[in-house]
Amino acid sequence: MEQFASTVKTLTDDLLQKQLPDLDEAIEKLLFEVSGLDALPKIPHTQLEDCAIQLWNWSVTKNAGGGLSKVQKAKVRYVACSLLYCCEPENPTEGAIRKQILMASKTGRTWLDCKNPQMADHFLRLAVKSLETLYSQLMSRGHAASDINSSKADVEKDLLRILSCQAESAVSQRNNEEAMVYMQRCKDMLQRLPKDTAYLSLMCYNFGVETYNLRMFEDSAFWLSQSYDIGKTNVKYGPGPEVLAKGLRLLATVYLEWDCQRFQEKALNAVVLANKECLSTSGLYLKIRILLRSGGPDTHIRAGLDEMLEAQVSLDVCLSTVKLLMSEDREMLAFDYLKRVCQHFGSSPDLGTALVLHVELLLQKGKGLLGKQKIEDIITGHYSGKQLAPDALTSLHVMLWDQASKQFE
């Protein structure tokens, strides 16, 4: 052990004196030296503990100055934490255990940030084990109840953070069932730690986003539902209606893309709930998409279109909705809605964009006479004070030339 301690001390001193270009080799030497420590018996050693603290503090200082990459920081923390646990005494003090918890949990978090969950798992397990030791030690004390309760609360806060990191690690390894177990333990602690409601809700939302991006729709739907349920358990400490609505809209999108026919009711329920939490343009538009994709009746779609106008959504969104209706073969609804949009935005300087789109759609659908009449109305309006914006005027010119060339041919 003395030879090992001497080698570690030399390598530590060497690393602390290195400049940026030479760090990698020094870090790798230390990493190699401590790689087999887990299999050795624990022996208290002041020099090794000093090296552990020196390396940890150095990594914090270097990282604050932007001198370490994430991987370098993770490796140095690996060494520091391994050394600290290797010299753990048989009956460690509360201070020593808290130091272990801090270093192990932060080392695990750093490896998670490096996208190395397997390495993170090892240190997160160490942190949980140390927390259990600390909890047992606190319970065996004879101190005042208020002191014990305060210390228990601190332990629970640390445990919730570590369990949530373990859930994150499990999700990243596609082990959804294991992640669910960790998250359930976190949820069980919320009654005692209500201030962590928003934290857990947002974490579940992030899991939902991650699994959605991987097209794992079932897992995504689960996590997004969990995010909403957790967020609603405590309104005071929840993430707020805007964030909850955002999660519900993504949940509706998951059902829409997963199998809209099978999950149309769930998709609609999610987006309706999102709009109740916090009405938004994206929520109103998404509702129309779901109704169209699931083959909803015209009456329901018309009601959704009414909602958009009542909510004062922008002209661009209204025109995007018209195009969506046309793409889903709801021609009658599209033209009817477009007329109402033109009336609604009658005094808008951008009205010309809607008028030109109306002409374009009429011509596309072979309604030449109606299109011609609309063009004449636009020209008359243009010269009587209702001038088209430059972009709309250019689009109209292009359309007229296109029609002229077709007629000539």
From TrEMBL:
Pfam families, per database record: SPO22
Organism domain of life: Eukaryota
Sorted UniProt keywords: Meiosis
InterPro entries given in the database record: Spo22/ZIP4/TEX11
PANTHER family on file: PROTEIN ZIP4 HOMOLOG, TESTIS EXPRESSED 11
This protein's name: Protein ZIP4 homolog
